[in-house]
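Reopening this one. Same input as before:
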Amino acid sequence: MFNYSESLTFLDHHVNFERMLNKARSADFKLNIVREALQKLGNPHANLKCVHIAGSKGKGSTAAMIAAMLKAAGFKTGLYTSPHLYDMRERMRILSHQKQTPDGIFGDEIARDDFARIIFHIKNTLDETLREQLTYFEWLTIAAFLCFFEQQVDWVVLETGLGGRLDATNVVDSWAAVITPIGLEHTQILGDTLGKIAYEKAAIIKPSNKFVVIAEQYPEVEHVIRQKIEEVKATNVFRIGHEIGYKINKVSWSGQDIDVMIGLQKFTGLRMPLLGDCQGANLTAALCVVEGLRGQGVKISNDAVFQGAAAVSWPGRFEIISGKQLFILDVCHTKESVHEFVKTLNRAFPGKKPVVILGISSDKDIQGICDQLKPVAREVIVVNGFHERAHTFTKEELKQNFPGLPVSFFQFTVDALDYIRERRDVELTAVVGSVFLVAQARKIIS
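Same output, byte for byte:
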């Protein structure tokens, strides 16, 4: 039997594209291998009622909101998201009103012993050839299905890891499919146009869906999604925009008040601790899921909706940490998500220009991200060595991307933060970009 540490060591021997995504290609992902492994394990996923979410931004926050509302409605809910900030178990959570896990950031992560036992069980059930064909993420996804099946959850909220069509989570026949905003990302795997990427992500839309939720999209993306909806003959579709939308009424550092309109249904004065216009859009998508489930006879009261919105926690998403200096932590790592970060910054801190500590993975739209940050930064500090996938900025590149701004380099996150914390002229610092950078910074300053 594994202990928790041994289970992590075992998993580390498998191909982990999260650490070397620039080397991955679509041919590296094979759902037939995942299906074969699940079949040998008794197909635990087949008996789970799932809400499946894909997109380029906002899918984790949307998943967390849906799960929080289901929990508030009294349902035992499994939540599978990625990546994690600190601990692998953050990816597999059981939201319920039962006892909490004392040693996790959320308090409802799978227990260490349970995680280790499940990984050991998978290892012993599958033959060596099959085990070695599974990637790190595929191992985790299979473990999550086993965990949720064992825990007899009422619902599973499932976030795709990469894309959709070939993602390990796409073995499920979900009750609902949710597509959050899609942008250019992981182009070497998903394709080099919005249409190609949309094709991959829209593949979670299936005939099994009792309803589909679509966020506002670029026209090219919208066209591809419409084709998919017609292909599977989905008729119960929530399209955000026009008759479905939201309005942000009040913003403070502690959260924001939002009204959401879904046809004739109106949710007024929802209080949510997450900041940003994008979170208003994510909340709207979550409420569309609630309305879709209600339409299928699932009992979710308005009180549960309000309680869930108020209770949702998603660290590292325009998270403000105050002390002698103010820090904003945001895992915005696409051009579109950085644009949303800038909008939220201007709303929460009008007229303020932060020092920006920046770290970006090498597979991202470097130019697009820098173009968004350039108008709002007073100074830029780059961390080049936060992770194996980190893009290494040169001095010339940084000056070209941020002309006229003071720029500096550090190899390690802790050194960049020490440099900022020793300066009395800095009131506001934004740590933005990679999840890996933000996780390191959060551990140091919180």
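So the earlier flakiness isn't reproducible anymore. For the record, Residues 4-311 form a domain with the UDP-N-acetylmuramoyl-L-alanine:D-glutamate ligase fold (CATH 3.40.1190.10).
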